[in-house]
């Protein structure tokens, strides 16, 4: 897991998303797949948003995807983000299908293109995933270029 330059908040860990946060804490993307219609579900939840089935199984994603859309933010952010400008907010489509809202990091914004291949990186939030002793710290999912 790498340190981030971007600010990270404390995630809201719930019954439905605990497995996802456990995965990112360990450097992988775990998401539910609907066994009725085969949809990989983003964001994690206990009911398929497509067919309303509750028959879901967790899978580990490849961590690979492509830039679906993005914007380069150069101004208009709060104080704790200002020193990180320009920053890139993007939709990344995972190879398994879901489109996630995220940041692209460690990429020169001038070379970003729709369809660009990206890979997951995990940025430590500093907040443990549970109150248990020795619980790993949670991690925010972001993406960087493949190379
Ligand atoms: Zn379904």
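^ Assign residues to that structure.
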């Amino acid at each position: 897991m790498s340190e981030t330059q971007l600010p990270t908040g404390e995630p809201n860990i719930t019954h439905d998303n605990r497995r996802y946060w456990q995965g990112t804490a360990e450097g992988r993307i775990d998401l539910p797949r609907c066994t009725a219609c085969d949809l990989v579900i983003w964001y994690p939840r206990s009911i398929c948003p497509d067919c309303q089935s509750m028959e879901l199984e967790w899978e580990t994603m490849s961590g690979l995807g492509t830039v679906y859309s993005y914007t380069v933010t150069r101004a208009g952010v709060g104080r704790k983000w200002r020193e990180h400008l320009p920053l890139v907010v993007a939709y990344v489509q995972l190879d398994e299908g879901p489109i996630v809202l995220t940041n692209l990091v460690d990429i020169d914004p001038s070379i970003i293109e729709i369809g660009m291949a990206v890979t997951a990186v995990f940025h430590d939030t500093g907040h443990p995933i549970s109150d248990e002793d020795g619980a790993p710290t949670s991690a925010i999912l972001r993406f960087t270029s493949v190379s």
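Residues 18-25 form the longest helix (8 residues).
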